[in-house]
Design brief:
mainly alpha; single chain
């Protein structure tokens, strides 16, 4: 069936989601928050893993390694974003002369 009207704009107030991220947050801030969240998760899983033994410990340490990989990916994206902003700033300054 074809829809006659477009989808309404996304809004946290009308959505059925419990958590929502504001749309006007810049990518750098989002990446920093993601990195800090992953770092906290890394610390928690590491602490819990050392309270466990055997297979349960191995599973949690494997999860912790995936969290670290996620951290590295986010940090790399943040570095690239920062470098691009610096290059754009240099190009703007050079063209202004």
């Amino acid at each position: 069936m074809k829809k006659n009207s477009p989808n309404p704009p996304y809004s946290c107030q009308t959505a059925t989601k419990i958590f929502c991220i504001a749309q006007n947050i810049d990518p750098e801030t989002l990446l920093v928050q993601a990195c800090e969240t992953l770092a906290s998760l890394n610390a928690i899983t590491t602490d819990i893993a050392f309270e466990l033994e055997g297979a349960q410990r191995h599973k949690l340490l494997a999860t912790q390694q995936l969290i670290v990989l996620g951290e590295l990916l986010v940090e790399k994206a943040l570095d690239a974003l920062t470098i691009n902003a610096q290059i754009e700033g240099s190009n703007t300054a050079a063209s202004g002369n």
